Amino acid sequence: MPQDAIDAYLRKCAGFGRWPLMRFHAHPVANVVVIPALAEYPGLFDTLHDLERNAQEVLSRTAVICVVNNRTQALAGLEAVDNNSETLRALSHYAPSASFPLAWVDASRPGNELPDKGGVGSARKIGLDWGLALLHASGQPDGPLICLDADTRVDPGYLDALDAFFRNQRRWAAVIEFAHPLDDPAIVSYELFLRYHELGLAYARSPYAFQTVGSAMACTARAYAAVSGMNSRQAGEDFYFLQQLAKTGPVDRVIETTVHPSARVSGRVPFGTGRSMQRFQAGDTDLDRAYDPRSYALLRSWFESVPPLLGGPADALLAA
């Protein structure tokens, strides 16, 4: 039973023991949005205001969990820690007037910090584990756990679309349409590469032909428990999480709404949007390059040769 599997995960694998959920009052929920935040004041509140632009019926059953996080001050820097303190203060003032149940985790103050090897994966895991507990307590094993980022904007009706999408109880996981703001040549190059690579994987008939953008993915509570939750990687946590989800169930695509990740320069992680922007501005011309299209043709040949060897139809094996 899904609820039994979720209960087992929460007893054995939940990673929120050191980090209590602040301010949340007992309230049945059907959806949970998790937003990690590291030095995101005041931008986080633009994202929260975006979430207000949904039907009140949906907002009333959608919990939003902000995980304000950093490692020790020696690793995170004083400026980031001070900014997080501003975020925590502002959340306590914002929460009473929010249109949705708002809670947060303090993984920032001295003694509450993430482990030295922790990062966005650890922050997502804490929030998603708490979200799983809320859905479990509400009897919602098919309710979605929705990943968002504090510097990402969303369309009006974003929650309405996801609420409707996951009402279909056959759902397992999903990636959501995304679009960076294309106001810089660097992000244009990066976005073209992402979309080219996805189309190449689709041509190759890869079962992993989808984008892995951390602010544009979601899964049901039962799917989250089935893959043993989010990993704690400092980078690439979204890639590995979606790979696991794809191995255990379908990863569908939500096209009824769009998320808009930030295109800012960042050195927090060794790869991804922020690092690519940083490299481009430093004159790295490799960002104008893409994989040879013959690579995808070769990969397609490999995918087509495997099913006969395994004695099964291609579509069934590639979808497994």
Q: Which structural category fits the helices and strands?
A: alpha/beta
Number of helices: 13
Q: What is the H-and-E element order? A: HEEHHEHHEHEEHEHEHHEHHH
Instruction: Please state the CA-atom Rg, rounded to the nearest Å.
Output: 20 Å
Range of helix content: 40-55%
Residue share in β-strands: 15-25%
Sheet with most strands: 9 strands, mixed
Shape call: globular
Total number of beta strands: 9
Neighbour order of strands in the largest sheet: 1-4-3-2-5-8-7-9-6
Mean pLDDT: 89
Query: Uncertain spans, ≥5 residues at pLDDT below 50?
Result: 310-320
N-to-C span: 21 Å
Explain what this protein looks like in three dimensions.
The structure is a single chain. The protein is α/β, with parallel strands linked by helices and 320 residues long. The chain contains 13 helices and 9 strands. It has helices at 2-12, 43-51, 56-59, 73-76, 78-94, 120-137, 158-166, 185-203, 221-226, 237-248, 273-281, 293-310, 314-319; strands at residues 21-22, 31-37, 62-69, 102-107, 144-147, 153-154, 173-178, 217-220, 251-260. Strands 1-4-3-2-5-8-7-9-6 form a 9-stranded mixed beta sheet, with helices on both faces. The radius of gyration is 20 Å and the shape is globular. The chain starts with a helix and ends with a helix. The model is unreliable at 310-320 (pLDDT under 50).
